[in-house]
């Protein structure tokens, strides 16, 4: 799904949850998420490891309670 401000605001206003993957080329959003990760207590960390195609991939997910007001427009 897309990471537009309008979409994320609508989801937040309806008290819904949204899972997304952000890559480093989404600079402003990535900076916000790094700030959240460093400054807001993590509720839960999930580590997922899978083996496929001769590789072992490990992904970690952090769950944070956030309020849209803390993000810059």
Q: Structural class of the helices, strands and pairings?
A: alpha+beta
What percent of residues adopt helix (DSSP H or I)? 25-40%
Question: What is the radius of gyration computed over CA atoms, rounded to a whole number of angstroms?
Answer: 14 Å
User: How many helices?
Assistant: 2
Mass-distribution shape: globular
**How many strands appear in the DSSP assignment?**
2
**Topology as a string of helices (H) and strands (E):** HHEE
The end-to-end distance, rounded to whole angstroms, is 20 Å
The whole-number mean of residue pLDDT values reads 80
The biggest sheet amounts to: 2 strands, antiparallel
Strand line-up in the sheet with most strands: 1-2
The low-pLDDT segments are: none
List the helices and strands and how they pair.
Blueprint: H1 5-13, H2 27-39, E1 44-52, E2 55-63
Antiparallel strand pairs: 1-2
């Amino acid at each position: 799904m897309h990471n537009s401000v309008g979409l994320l605001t609508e989801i937040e206003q309806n008290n819904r949850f949204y899972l997304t993957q952000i890559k480093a080329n989404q600079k402003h959003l990535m900076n916000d998420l790094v700030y959240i990760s460093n400054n807001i207590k993590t509720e839960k960390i999930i580590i997922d490891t899978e083996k496929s195609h001769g590789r072992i991939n490990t992904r970690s997910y952090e769950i944070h309670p956030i309020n849209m007001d803390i993000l810059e427009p």
